[in-house]
Amino acid sequence: MCSVLFTACESGPKDDPNVKPEDNRFTEVTLAQGLDEPMEMTFLPGSKILIAERKGGLKLVNEETRETLDAGFISVNTKYTNKEGRTREAEEGLMGVIADPNFEENNWIYLYYADPDTPKHVLARYEFKDDYLVEDSKIVVLEVKTQREECCHTGGGMTWDTEGNLFLTVGNNTVNPRSGASNMNEAEGHKNEDDQRAPGNSNDLRGKILRITPQADGSYTIPEGNLFPEGTEKTRPEIYTMGHRNPWRVSYDTKTGYIYWGEVGPDANVDSIWGPKGYDEFNQAKKAGFFGWPYVIGNNFPYNRYNSEDGTYGEPFDPMNLKNNSVNNTGIVDLPEPVPAMLYYPYGPSQEFPLLGTSGRSATGGPVYRKADFKNAERPWPSYYEGKWLITDFMRGWIMAITMDENGDYESMEQVLPNNFYSGAIDMDFGPSGDMYVLEYGTAWFRGNPNSRLVKIEYNAGNRKPIVEAAVDKTSGQLPLKVNLSAEGTMDYDDYDQGNLNYSWIIKEGGVEKDRVSGEKVEYTFTDAGDYEVELEVTDSKGDMNSKTLNVFAGNSAPQLSITLDKPNKTFYFGEKQIGYSIAVTDSEDGSTENGAINADEVSTTFDFVPAGFDPIEMAANHATEDELASFSVGRQLIEGSDCISCHQFDSKSIGPSYAEVAERYPNTPKNRAYLIEKVINGGSGVWGEHGMSAHPDLSRADAARMVDFILNMNSTASRLPLSGSVNAAIPDYEESGSFVLRAAYKDRGASNVKPLLGEEMIVLRSPFLEPHSADFRKSTVVQTASRNAFYAIGDGSSIGFADIDLTGIKEIVLYVSTGGRAAVLGGTAELHFDDPDGAAIATSEKVGMAPDQGFRRPPAGMSFTEFRRQNAMKLNLSIPEGTEGKHSVYFKFKNPDAGESDFVFQIQEIEFRQ
Question: What GO MF terms are annotated (predicted)?
Fold first, then answer.
């Protein structure tokens, strides 16, 4: 009987569509990591996943062999150059990839990319054979004319329907206005600031979702049911939906035929004279339609009309009678009735959809699960998720399951695996195995992130794989490099595996195994220089294995940076007009800025104002350009220290051409870069005259690449800050709040067999007024959306806390609260605690009771609502002990011994730190 019961237990739970499966039956399995800006994935036969990387690379992940291979490269554009000649990193590049539905017969894939030479985006078909791209097989299917003077938005998501029609998302390719709202500037010379010329234009492919039927000869036809029938004047028949700002990953429901996608919205944090604040959206199209941008957003909230001549705003648009009268419109004037968003959410709490949370936002999208799509799947997800739309957000890191009613309309949502976080989830889909795959871009824009990865989420109805955690105490250092490896936190949910897990650490270099050690915790010494992957494999008693990989750079220490400010407090901005700073860099191999071994040109320093709600991409583009130019200065040093300078000068002709002439002759493309690197190493003649170029066989390829990068980027420009000085810290007139970010970065010169490592330091000076919604720690609190997103502390001992707050110079903390009202808020006292919420109280406020309900009141003319609220709120004052300095975690505990577990003690509006 016991064996029968044991077998039944192993077989797992019954697949009941009404019972939510346990979270511990889902296991994350990392398939690849350390990718170079992954954008989109597609599934190929043989348990293979093809990934497009923004700079033009293709990676092929083989699940069976656990290998990640280079699978081809195409030249793409990755830069914007504005009218002033300033070049910076662009969102565009290789933006999308998808396999043909009949890939096993025809070996076709489709790539969507930015043409390297001409301002246009291209959808091209290629052959992909023997695990590699056949470059000369390219057939251009579709082209989208673009501008590449200003950021942003590309789209690039693709999916197929069951009839062989291809959907493609295309971004608006329009400037983000400083207001963070809709952009409708019709002034002469500003057409790139007018979204009426693209998303609102029926005769332009930008800001659309296209639907075409690709043909065998590389052409395409138009399926029935698109928004505008073929031959309709002033329209493009490829358009399925229009009125999009930045449609992202699109998916298709094989049962209903509906499509779904995420839509990235504008940055405004508050409603204002231009109209509503910014919202991201998750959208559904049951048929072809118009989705309102740039005239409405969210639940068809209208923007106000803009007068381009005097910069004033007028009446709001009528959502039921939208007309495109822009001078930049080449399409129809009378627009279809707009379809409201299914889900929409701002930076702050959403009154309609509170589970979506707060903070940065970038709606990605995700698939609708249909079990019938995976008839022979090894591990289909349970029937509980049948017909649900699974969505993710690039910045918030969650996965939500959206339940819809029989009409396909929104019904409810719930978080999937709430303890998991996905770092920059840029694509998500179900694969042929029935597993769900999440492609993570990683932490920072415009760089290959160590934490980028492809992970699959397996549903395990029987034996559950181990949950693996791996850590190393040092990721870089000089030889011999001794590190401590730990599997602490690794676990298995099956009782019979407790104490029966086997741990194996595999040391790899370039994917080749070099060594292997066993144990939950081990000490290991690297004696040879190299870039190593350290993979921890954990196997349970049933033979099921899961793994996690770390990177260790032996023979090169990561640089250390420090920023010193001439103001005492390093957390808050108190209205200083000028802020003095100095930056120091120390690197074990390269030296330091102090001794002059590292010079100012090698350090990337930027200073930005970040609005309270903001799109991080533009700031990241500035950082990426600065980092690039700083690293190029190392190439100049290498040139000056070599024999090259005897034949070539930087700006004037010598025996050979000047480097400026070389840069002019060879545009900065991957092909030209590779050619020049070979010339530097192997030499050559006959290109510039009769004088031959000397070979440099002893020069490492990495150093040759740095020299070439400097030459090819000689004409690049960016704002450059010195290692010390002062910055203007005035908040722009049109911004109510935000933060200043001072960042310094240095990429070292590498070492033998070890790639250069980037170090960075950042100081964020934020407003001294903190919102309770942004607290890092919460206990017994709730946000009630019915009353303007009110934040409540519930019961005696409820608390909130903020991590790493610099208290230097802070004399007092003031909590702006309210009591009484319809919620019957009781009042009480507030305690201040440092570093431990249950430690000794540093200060205690006076007790306040219930206040009489004054109802909703408007501020007098000329006073902002924020200032009016601060003047009329109750204030709980907490004094900081004299001499308190440095960073602390700061906790506020709310006390009322008479409060029940469900009683509201305080409504918390704001927390102010005062000097």
Answer: electron transfer activity; heme binding; iron ion binding
Comparing 48-52, 160-164, 742-746, which segment has the lowest mean pLDDT?
742-746
Displacement of CA 141 from its chain's centroid (Å)? 29
Per-residue pLDDT tens digits for 701-729: 767 877 787 777 766 545 568 999 999 99
Q: Over the stretch 436-456, which tens digit does the pLDDT of each residue have? A: 999 999 988 888 888 999 999
Range of weakest confidence among 139-148, 269-278, 280-289? 269-278
What H or E segment, with its residue span, contains residue 708? helix 701-712
Contact 182, 297 (CB under 8 A): yes
What pLDDT score does 787 carry? 46
Residues 418 and 481 in one domain: no
Identify the CATH number of the domain in which residue 600 sits: 1.10.760.10
CA distance 824 to 849: 11
* pLDDT single digits (tens) 192-247: 999 999 999 999 999 999 999 999 999 999 999 999 999 999 999 999 999 999 99
- Asked whether residue 648 is marked as a ligand-binding residue, the answer is yes
Distance CA 417, CA 437 (A): 14
Q: How many CB atoms lie within 10 A of CB 854?
A: 10
Hey, CA dihedral for 685, 688, 691, 695, is it positive or negative? negative
Answer with the one of 511, 528, 554 that is the final residue of a domain.
554
- In angstroms, how far is the first alpha carbon of the chain from the final one? 73
The strand ranges marked E within 47-131 are: 48-53, 57-62, 67-73, 79-81, 87-89, 94-99, 108-114, 120-129
Q: Is 693 a known ligand-binding residue?
A: yes
- pLDDT band, residue 295 (cuts 50/70/90): very high
Sheet holding 399-404, edge to edge: 363-365, 389-393, 399-404, 410-416
676 alpha carbon, distance to own chain's centre: 34
Would 356 be classed as within a structural domain? no
pLDDT of 319 higher than 60: yes
Based on the domain organization, do 64 and 201 belong to the same domain? Answer: no
CATH of residue 529's domain is: 2.60.40.10
Q: Is 644 annotated for ligand binding?
A: yes
Distance from C-alpha of 35 to C-alpha of 515, rounded to nearest angstrom: 24
Same domain, 830 and 862: yes
pTM above 0.85, yes or no: no
- Are 77 and 161 found together in one domain? no
Domain match, 610 and 725 both: yes
Residue 8 is predicted with a pLDDT of: 35
Per-residue pLDDT reduced to its tens digit, 595-618: 999 988 889 898 888 776 656 666
Candidates 33, 32, 14, 31; CA nearest to 22 is 14
71 plus 18 within the same structural domain = no
Q: How far apart are CA 714 and CA 381, in angstroms?
A: 54
For residues 7-28, give the mean pLDDT: 80
Q: Are residues 782 and 886 in the same domain?
A: yes
Please give the residue range of the domain that contains residue 386: 1-32+366-462
Residue 361 lies in a domain: no
Residue 228: predicted pLDDT: 98
Same domain, 177 and 305: yes
Residue pair 894/799 in contact (Cβ under 8 Å)? The answer is yes
- Copy the structure tokens of residue 750: 């590498």
Number of domains in the chain: 6
Listed in sequence order, the residues at least 6 apart from 490 whose beta carbon sits closer than 8 Å to its beta carbon are 466, 467, 468, 469, 470, 501, 503, 520, 536, 538
pLDDT above 70 for 643 = no
Q: Examine residue 352 and state whether it is found in any structural domain, yes or no.
A: no
Last residue of a domain, one of 503, 529, 554: 554
d(CA 760, CA 758): 7
Angle at 421 between CA 417 and CA 424, to 5 degrees: 130
More confidently predicted of 164 and 736: 164
Question: Which CATH number characterizes residue 891's domain?
Answer: 2.60.120.260
Beta bridge partners of 94: 113
